[in-house]
Amino acid sequence: MRFLVKAFVAFCVCATGITGVYGSDNEDNLGQDATRPRSRLDLRVQYQQVESDVELVRLTARIDQPITIGNGWKLNTRVSQGFFFSDLPSSDNIDRETEEGFGDLLTQAFFIPPSDSNVSFGFGLRAIFPTATQDQLGSGKYSLVPIGVVLHFPTWLASGSFIGVGVRNQVGFGGDKDRKDINELQIAPIVNIRLPRKSFVSFFPTIRRDWKNQNDVFVPFDLAFGRAIGRGKIGSLRLQVPLIDKQNRYDWTLEARVTFLF
Q: What's the domain range around 16?
């Protein structure tokens, strides 16, 4: 567990050294709405109990930068990179020692058309590159992931609350021919409820169906709570526990996140 403590200390040092900025027109936007993107930096530390004797810690830095492209349309760009500590076994870790290294690189382009109603949507494409420094830290494949999101903002919920659904389908290609093929449907019901004092609770489980491996299904319980913790800073905790796990993904996951809004 020493690597978890070190990772958490590094996360806290970075989080306290950065200050975000709220714009006056974004007071009700805590960065949870994919169709109203904010310039942001996310720092995350995630602990995952993969099996009873296998652990994983992931540090992630994610940058989002929205761009106005005319006629009310926006393009949100994203880059995300993870760094891992884990004793996951692989051809690079036969002895099951705790190893560390970078994971795969994720990039994303997400288009949002203008909306004057209580329904908004967006669509885009995610590209994942096999940059992991060891086999157990990445997929070994290039991936393209088409994305679609639809959100509804009910008037009977507090301002800033929404419900919706996100749909993705990840398809892998190229890369290491000895690694498992990827073709996976991902459906994410979304419920985000605004609470007093610039806080929120969100329900965002990603339901997965693996088209390549006997149509195995994964359904998690996924709950997060967050709130503003300073000027331009949002802190949150997220818990994930499998309800149906035909893919043997993990036993449970806990993630702490600090988001800096600019």
A: 2-261
